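Table S2 (continued). Query chain:
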Amino acid sequence: MTRKKLYLLSLLSGIIFFLSWPPYGFPFLLFIAFVPLLQIEEAFSTGQAKGRRTLLFGLSYLTFFAWNITTTWWVYKASLGGAAMAILANSFIMAAVMWVFHLAKMRLLTLNFKFQTWNFIFIIFWLGYEFFHHRWDLTWPWLTLGNAFASLPSCIQWYEYTGTGGGSLWILVVNLAFFELLKNKFQAGKLRIQAGKIILMIAAPVGISLGLYFSYKEKENPVPIVIVQPNIDPYSEKFSGMNYAEQLEKLLDLARLKVDSSTKYLVCPETALTESIWENNLEQTASFRRLKEFLRSFPELKIIIGASTQYLYESGEKLSVTARKFKREEAYYDAFNTAFQVDNTDSIQLYHKSKLVPGVERMPYPGVFGFLSAVAIDLGGMSGSLGTQEERTVFTSPLTSESGAEVEVAPVICYESIFGEFVSGYVGKGATLIFIITNDGWWGNTAGYKQHLLYGRLRAIETRRSISRSGNTGISCFINQRGDIMQPTAWWTPDAIKGSINANSEETFYVLTGDIIGRISFYLSGIILVYITLRSLQTRLKRG
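Corresponding output:
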């Protein structure tokens, strides 16, 4: 295979990935996106490709760089450094998966393992990579394969059993089937059988999903909610040009248009409160006093709202790895991206965002690289690595639904909404509704905020929880338990919407088991690599 053909195949794979991705792509193209790249790997495995095998890594990197930059280029609008790290590093990691797969495959062949094809271990390695990529400090799972079908929720209702890992497995298996079809050069005797298998692999999950979609009925347990979208420019107004009191009044003015005595929740965006808020003395904060004043007219109303906050450590109190020291005194504090529930009781419930954007909200592995935390740029008005909390907080409140049932809310902040197992953990702790609060204005009018919105649909299907989504600049909406978007607001428009969504207390199989496909694949990947290493050492010792 010529060098020119290798590069063309590499670019073709990257282009197909781009054409598959939401919000504008056609997800079913993903079923052939890996095929050109697998052809390249096969050429190196069989000796058809000339040149060093390290060229395979470079060609893989070209594919994944093309995919990453064409689908996530918009990150640069918030942080050029963050965009460079996300695109370059993510492409490198993806290419490394292909490279490790190739090395493992070649080693198995040299160890005289007899098998028709070892290409299936690519599926195991890729799924293991996706599982791991959701959990380490350099996490950036925006391009998890299963995310692509967020634009077609009627085709993936079975995510309530598998999560996005099932979607990734589906895509990889069909890619391998197409590759084997091409590899056998459409042999007449096998063409019909192989083509039939591929059609069944695609049609059966879609058919099952459509059956689930049209037969799924939500239990009537309505909760009246108002969502506010204040539309405050995060660059020119939110943290500089408009003071915190003006911003809060704008938000409450919009709320008054929709809130009435029947409303149970008012949902506001991430970092809607921009006053300097110290958690040690919340009740004395002007913003909270104003919210409490607003609540007097609505005894049953609860406000879910985001803020940038700080916590002052008392003398002798154990410090976190993200604790910061005051410049002129011997005292420490932590900064957080926080969600609050404020109501007519004396307590204020809070949750600290715990899935932070690496390199933007938090320096990876702060225990090691904490001295570099000052270079992190927070998309919430602060610089430096933010603090987190170990356990998720579910906001509680008795007798909130119209049916009189207790409602508990999962406060999901921005980036956290792309982590399926993380969000399902809220449901495991009792959440019956999910509220996503975000500020997507950092990315401008690009595909970024649209992708972020669509990924919320996946969380609704996985958990069968209704979602209220409040975005500072849009899109705000309700999402039902089938993943349908309802009452979406316009981008960059102040607005308030009112509706009722159903609370649900039943747990799906995915909530009970988590990312079982990815977890099994991750451990199998480790077992395969350890086994290959040990067998290789054994072979060398025998030769020695």
